[in-house]
Amino acid sequence: MVGTEVVNLSIISAKRPKSPLGDSNLDMALKGKEVLIIDDQSDIRLLSRKILENQSLTVSEASSVDEAIELAIKKPPHLIIVDLHMPKRNGFDFLEQRLKTPSLLSVPVIVISGLQDQKSIYKAIQLGARDYIVKPFAATILIQKVRKNLRDQDFIGYTFSDKASPSLTVTVNADISKMSETGFLLESPMKLSEKAKIKIICEAFEKQGLTQDQFLTSEKPGVRAISGNYVSSVNVVGLKKSLSRNLKHEK
User: Fold this and answer.
1) Looking at residue 63, what DSSP letter applies?
2) Of the spans 8-12, 13-17, 117-121, 200-204, which averages the highest pLDDT?
3) Per-residue pLDDT tens over the stretch 41-98
4) Are 128 and 197 in a shared domain?
5) Do residues 187 and 225 share a domain?
6) Is the pLDDT reported for residue 103 higher than 60?
7) Which residues are bridge partners to 235 per DSSP?
8) Are both 28 and 105 inside the same structural domain?
């Protein structure tokens, strides 16, 4: 079963066209970009610095959260790498302080830490970290994560006026469950917004006389399921009484 959601956007982002010169030219986007490394261990800072400088990045260091905040506010970097376990104020303290600092909100943060428990990883992500690398780490992993986060900054942003807002159509595979006389639950990899018009391409529905665009999500947005997908409640618009009973018994 396939669902298609049409969403009105007020802001849209798109990547710059891929260069015919290939990946080597894409890496030029890293040249000269500044990365701030926050770690109380000088050997880790030195190792990370050498790895990143080999990628044509400019690296600055801080051995404490207070020093890092001062440096970052004075000159916000393009990317911040922070350790969690540090004396006095730790990496979590930095992430919390960053959320209170407007000039740093748009700066992506990668956590590098020896803490491997799910609670620490989840907390770091909840506080705004874009990625999490466990120590000891391979140079290739660090480079990959840094490249990804820095390239994401090369998106072109454009703000449309209310009257000129474009429409975006996305097609995803979805599972339908828990049918009722007025609707059903839809599980998909994409979170559907509330009161969104969607199209459902389903042979079983077509046999019941339902058109593809008779569906509207409920007033509540989709919620995350244990599977990792999102579950949304979908109502059938303009449902005839003669079809409601058949819909409830459809499997």
Assistant:
1) S
2) 117-121
3) 999 999 999 999 998 899 999 999 999 999 999 999 999 999 999 988 999 999 999 9
4) no
5) yes
6) yes
7) 183, 216
8) yes
